[in-house]
Each structure stands twice: as structure tokens, then as C-alpha cells.
Specification:
Number of helices of chain A: 24
Number of strands of chain A: 4
Number of strands of chain B: 8
Largest interface: A-B, 73 and 60 residues
Structural class of chain B: alpha+beta
Number of helices of chain B: 3
Distance between the termini of chain A: 36 Å
Radius of gyration of chain A: 24 Å
Shape of chain B: extended
Radius of gyration of chain B: 22 Å
Largest sheet of chain A: 2 strands, antiparallel
Oligomer: heterodimer
Structural class of chain A: mainly alpha
Strand content of chain A: under 5%
Distance between the termini of chain B: 39 Å
Strand order of the largest sheet of chain B: 1-6-3-4
Chain lengths: ~525, ~180
């Protein structure tokens, strides 16, 4: 481990390196130059005066927000001796498992290509480009023949892979012993227990006001809601990312949520961001990718069939098609255990100058991927801002839900956390479900992989995602999954098959997320 | 489980290694002068947060001189004692062991000028007292240099946003290598 002093210096160096040359940097320089004309900036005390000017004009706050954003996204720097793959994933056997899983996906995509005789990518003819440009805002009306396409993989395929994950250095004996876990996940990752979770999620405590509970019709708004909204407006006026992140832990008022989330993720929709989005749109027009058909199919199968999200179908295409062309997403592979798929320009196999990533953003969508975007459509209506919010949510959180890693917010840790919580606090239920062949993770996995999108009512989902942003962690998904099982425990104890258990847990749309979390963490007798 | 490393007497600056499922490590040294007994310079340094779980199991660690309990000039032999109390692991060891005497760390080649231009922090009141002293910051230049090299290497695929090669993006199949 790098000791504390060295670690801080390295972190500072990294943040400076990343912010240099960014548009914020040039804006700060421009502002500093502009300030020279101001009367309060004197030559004798130039440095201090410019600093004061930047502070009072709010530019220092913008810089603070940018630094805070960098610290949140990138993990703490590794030891200097560590190779880059160590930052992606420190455990060698997990890197290997992720590599094998990726290879399976590539093979599947390649075989789809050869079967259907469709190239992975090709340039659109001019007439087709014009047609797509005209139809850009209503791509949902298109009814292309997608019957031959199939999703590259579904969450349950991924669960099979995770179930078979083994550490070769661990005693995975055949005989049941204290070494074997009773759930589906067999890797010994460190997960938190309820006392630790209580400390981490202390703002969800019983004596602290929450939106989702204390704003219900029976509670007079003077008790909590009015004050909370007032504080939220103040946070927005201050434009402070860190304060916003702390604030949303108690939930966001609906009217302020869009701006607060944008503040936390440091998205400001500058002219250059809008221009970047337009550039991506033109890339979509120019080149046709096989991945586009996968996106179409996914949207048609999932979001279009959902009562809440079908109205946003056109937005989903506008976001996801552009997302596939966005090479800035490649940066997240520095801290993700995944690797972007590679290919070569036709006819130049093996020639490194003609190597490209496919798709350009390195992310192959799976069944249900569009559900990551759908809830954001309730908050953002301007395509470029919606796009940026989704992209930032993906490179901060969602990528961890479909890659194999040992990170505490990675899907493997979430699964183990869920199983451990259930086993520790509802041992009878866990044992009963196991005996009838209904391992709880088989049911809850799909909820966690999709961050509950499409399973909860939208207002409840947004309250849940408030906490994901507020705590900068996905662990709340595992806690909620366990809380749902705890809530329906009585019914689940009476079922005698996996299908019956699935039926009990099929409909989560009436659940209230915040009371469930509070009761499970703070009011369950342990 | 332990291991010795010996050679001519010399000062010790830092020990760097990669862990492989060792929970605790102790380091003892034998000095050229003085009694021929082993002195403990690192006592039961915890490497894994929990001996049963994966955290820290394959991480890289440094044991710098200033964290050692005894004087490590004129060291003739170094002994590592590895402990892993949990029975669940098949093997445990440390790998890629490197012991640095002070002179051997190569000086940074030409680190960017902005690294030496880091302004000394203001003396703001209260909780910001943990800002590093600028002398110490430039003294850590070795590590910073390594980091900037890594970043520079990664930035070779520039952030231009082009994903095609000369306007062409005709790809046929994905590559497995």
C-alpha cells in the first residue's frame, strides 16, 4: 500500500493531470485574464486578488466540483509497482474469468454476424443517411425486421458464470464445510454486515427525516418536507457537488432532482457538450453498426413493453445509438475489469494501424441494457443533457453491474452481500428456500443487475437512485433486495417451488423503498 | 513460513512486494556490526483486512525505511516471516520481492515542469493542516514521475473522438487476441 503522504501526493498529481487541458482549465485561464480589467485586482497583490476574484465569482466552486468528481470516479492510486491491470482488478483469477466471459460474448457476436451475413459495421449509403436524419426524432415508428437478432446474453447467463467463479487458491472441497458458502456465490469476498451498513447508511436512520416516508400525505409538511426543500434550494444556489451528494442521502424533492443529480455528477451541458452530442449523432447517421440492431431489439423487448417507459422509446434510441459511438467511454476501462473488444478494418487483419475498438465505446449491450436509460427520461428532456447524465451514470456505476470484479460495488460483491444478509438475518427463510430449490439469488439477481429499473414504481426507483448517488455505492441494491425478501418472508415460507417463490416476488411495483430499507437496517431484531 | 535474503552489508531504503494471500508479515534484520541476533524491523504488518477474505490478498505493498522499528543501515541479512491463520487458503506467499538500497532508485528522467511549480499551500485555518509540505511533495517526485509516465502512455490513444481509420470503419469480425 502507498502510505498516506505518498498517496495524497499521487492523487493530487493525477487530478491535476486530468484537469489540465480540460475546458474548465481554459475557462479558468480566460476568467483570470478577464479579471485583470477589474478595479479590485491590483498588480502588487495579483495572485491573491485573482484567487479572491475566482472565489467570489463562483469559479473556485466549479473547480472544487471538478476535483470532487475526479476523486469520486477514479479509485485511489495503486502502488507505483502495480501494473495497470491491477487498477482494473487486483485479483488475477477474476481478471481471467472476466477475460473468458468476454471471449464468450465475442464468439456469440461473431457467430451472429456470420449466420446472418451482416457486417459488424458499414457506412450508410447517402440516401439512407438522409432518411435516418429525417426520422431522427421518431425512430420508434420504424419496424425493422429484428426476428433474426437475439440478445448477446441475458442476466441469467451471467449469473451462471458468477456461480462457477472459483478462487483456485481456496479450498473448494466437495464436502460441505464452513468453507463453502450456502448461497450461489462461492468466492470469499469481504462484505459488510448490518452494523457496518448501519454506520455507512446512517442518514437512513429512524430518527432522520426521509423523503419517501416523511413526505407522505399523513405527515404535515412543516415537520420535515418544507425545510428539506428549502435546504435543497440552498444547495443548488451554492452549486456545491459535495453538499448535494450529502443532501440527496435523505432523498431529492421531485422538483429539484434533475438539477441536483446534474450537480452531483458535475454535468453542466456547456455548448461544447451539445456540440459533442451532435458529433455523435452525425456518427450514427454515417455508419451503421450491428450493435444498433441489438439496441433496437432490446428497446422493443423491454422498455417499449413497460407501462411507464414506452413513451420514451424515441429518446432511448437517441441516447443509446450515440452512446455506442462515444469513444470517451473508453476511459472508464482504466478502472473497470472489462476490456473493450477489438477488431481490424476489413482486409487489414493483424495490422495494428488498422486496429479499432468495436463498438467505438467498447460496450456491447445485453438484454435489459436500455432500462439503465429509461428512468432518466423522466428527469431530462433535452437529448444532449439526457445523454451526458446517462453516460456519467454508466461510467460511475452501471458498468460494475455486468462485469466480474472484486470491487465492493461490483455485482459479485453485491450478490454475496445479499446472500450473506439474508442468511444471517433470515436463516429460516434462507434454509427453506434452499431446500425447495429456490436459491434466493436466482430471483434477486435480475433486480440488482438492472438496479431495480423496471421492477419498482418510477418514483420509488428514483428515491433508490438518489441513495446510489448520495452514497456513491451500489451496495444499497443488495440491502433492498434482502429487505424485499424480509418483507415477503411470511408468504415465501409457504411456497414449495422456485416457480411459486418467483410468483410471490413477481410484482414489486407496490413496494415503498425507503421504509423497507429503514426497517431492514435499523428496526430488525438481530 | 519465512525466508532469508543476504548479501554484502548495506543500508535499506524500502522493501516492495506483491502479496499472495499472506495475512501478516514480519521482517527481521541482521546487522553487520553489533550482536549476531535478529532485530525486528517490521512487526506483524497486516496485509489482509480479514484473513478469510480476498481484500488485500493480491495487492502491492511497500515497507519504507521510516516505518521500520530499528535502524536499517549495514544490513547483512533480511528474514521475512509470513503468517496466514486462516485454513481456507491452499498457499500463501509474497512475490516480486524487491529490496531497495537508497542509491539504487533511478532519478526521475525529466519530469514535467508543472510538477515543480506546485504552489506552496496557503496557511488556511483549521482542518486543512493535512496538506503536504511542498518540499515533501517534490521529494515524492519519483512516484509522481512513474504515474505521469503511466498516464502519458495511456493517453497515446488520444481523446479526439474519432473511432474510424481515415474515414473507414468497415469491420468484419471481432478479434479474440
Amino acid at each position: 500500500m502507498v502510505d498516506a503522504e505518498g498517496g495524497l501526493s499521487l492523487t493530487i498529481a493525477r487530478v491535476v493531470q486530468r484537469l489540465r487541458g480540460s475546458s474548465l482549465h481554459s475557462q479558468l485561464e480566460r476568467q483570470a485574464r478577464v479579471s485583470l480589467h477589474k478595479p479590485e485586482v491590483k498588480l502588487e497583490s495579483l495572485k491573491e486578488d485573482i484567487r479572491d476574484f475566482l472565489k467570489t465569482s463562483g469559479w473556485e466552486k466549479k473547480l472544487q466540483n471538478a476535483v470532487y468528481s475526479e476523486l469520486n470516479v477514479f479509485p485511489s492510486p495503486c502502488h507505483p509497482a502495480a501494473p495497470p491491470e491491477h487498477m482494473k482488478e487486483p485479483l488475477a483469477y477474476m481478471r481471467k474469468a472476466q477475460g473468458s466471459w468476454e471471449k464468450r460474448i465475442l464468439k456469440s457476436l461473431n457467430s451472429m454476424c456470420t449466420e446472418l451475413n451482416i457486417p459488424l459495421a458499414q457506412k450508410r449509403p447517402a440516401s439512407e443517411q438522409k432518411e435516418l436524419l429525417n426520422k431522427w426524432n421518431e425512430m420508434g415508428t420504424d419496424e425493422p425486421d429484428l426476428s433474426l437478432f437475439r440478445p448477446v446474453y441475458a442476466p441469467k447467463d451471467f449469473l451462471e458464470v458468477l456461480m462457477n467463479l472459483r478462487n483456485p487458491n481456496y479450498e473448494n472441497g466437495e464436502q460441505p464445510s464452513f468453507r463453502n458458502h450456502l448461497g450461489l456465490i462461492q468466492v470469499p469476498l469481504k462484505v459488510k454486515d448490518i452494523p457496518e451498513l448501519k454506520e455507512d447508511f446512517s442518514e437512513l436512520g429512524l430518527n432522520i427525516g426521509q423523503l419517501g416516508i416523511d413526505d407522505s400525505a399523513q405527515v404535515p409538511p412543516e415537520f420535515f418536507e418544507n425545510e428539506h426543500v428549502r435546504v435543497g434550494q440552498k444547495v443548488l444556489a451554492e452549486q456545491d457537488s459535495a453538499a448535494a451528494q450529502q443532501y440527496v442521502r435523505q432523498g431529492c424533492p421531485t422538483a429539484l432532482r434533475a438539477e441536483l443529480w446534474a450537480l452531483i455528477l458535475n454535468i453542466s451541458n456547456q455548448p461544447e457538450d451539445i456540440l459533442y452530442y451532435e458529433q455523435l449523432k452525425s456518427n450514427v447517421i454515417q455508419h451503421n453498426l450491428l450493435v444498433d440492431s441489438l439496441i433496437y431489439k432490446d428497446v422493443k423487448l423491454t422498455a417499449s413493453n413497460d407501462d411507464y417507459y414506452f413513451v420514451f422509446e424515441d429518446y432511448l434510441y437517441q441516447v443509446l445509438l450515440c452512446f455506442s459511438r462515444d469513444t470517451s467511454v473508453l476511459e472508464h476501462f482504466a478502472y473497470s475489469s472489462a476490456t473493450p473488444p477489438k477488431s481490424y478494418i476489413r482486409g487489414k487483419l493483424g495490422v495494428e494501424e488498422y486496429a479499432v475498438f468495436y463498438p467505438p465505446n467498447g460496450v456491447i449491450p445485453f438484454h435489459g441494457f436500455s432500462m439503465y436509460v429509461a428512468p432518466l427520461c423522466f428527469l431530462y428532456h433535452e437529448p444532449s443533457k439526457l445523454y451526458q447524465m446517462f453516460r456519467e451514470m454508466y461510467v460511475r456505476f452501471f458498468f460494475r453491474l455486468h462485469s466480474i470484479s472484486s470491487h465492493p460495488s461490483g455485482i459479485v460483491s453485491l450478490c454475496l452481500l445479499f446472500e450473506t444478509l439474508l442468511q444471517t438475518h433470515l436463516p429460516q427463510l434462507f434454509y427453506h428456500l434452499r431446500e425447495i430449490g429456490a436459491q434466493p439469488l436466482r430471483i434477486s439477481f435480475k433486480w440488482m443487475v438492472r438496479a431495480f429499473s423496471g421492477y419498482l414504481a418510477t418514483d420509488q426507483l428514483l428515491l433508490l437512485w438518489d441513495r446510489i448517488l448520495g452514497y456513491n455505492s451500489l451496495e444499497i441494491l443488495a440491502v433492498l433486495a434482502a429487505a424485499v425478501f424480509a418483507f415477503r418472508a411470511v408468504n415465501l415460507m409457504e411456497v414449495t417451488s422456485l416457480a411459486a417463490a418467483e410468483a410471490v416476488l413477481a410484482d414489486l411495483s407496490t413496494l415503498k423503498v425507503v421504509p423497507l430499507l429503514q426497517i431492514f437496517l435499523f428496526a430488525t431484531v438481530t | 513460513m519465512g525466508g532469508d535474503a543476504g548479501g554484502g552489508p548495506g543500508p535499506l531504503q524500502e522493501i516492495v512486494f506483491r502479496n499472495f494471500y499472506t495475512a501478516f508479515v514480519s521482517v527481521r534484520v541482521q546487522r553487520a556490526r553489533g550482536p549476531r541476533r535478529w532485530l525486528t524491523c517490521v512487526r506483524r504488518r497486516r496485509l489482509m483486512a480479514s484473513p478469510h477474505a480476498e481484500q488485500g490478498a493480491q495487492d502491492y505493498f511497500s515497507l519504507p525505511r521510516h516505518q521500520m522499528l530499528c535502524d536499517v543501515d549495514q544490513v547483512t541479512a533480511v528474514r521475512f516471516i509470513l503468517r496466514q491463520p486462516s485454513p481456507v487458503w491452499l498457499h500463501f506467499t509474497i512475490e516480486e520481492l524487491q529490496i531497495f538500497p537508497p542509491s539504487q532508485k533511478s532519478p526521475p528522467k525529466d519530469f514535467p515542469s508543472w510538477l515543480s511549480q506546485l504552489a506552496p499551500p496557503q496557511q488556511p485555518p483549521g482542518p486543512h493542516a493535512e496538506l503536504p509540505d511542498p518540499e515533501k511533495v517534490s521529494a515524492e517526485a519519483q512516484q509522481m514521475w512513474v504515474l505521469t509516465e503511466v498516464i502519458r502512455a495511456r493517453q497515446a490513444a488520444a481523446r479526439i473522438g474519432r473511432f474510424d481509420v481515415d474515414g473507414c470503419y468497415d469491420v468484419n469480425l471481432l478479434s479474440y487476441t
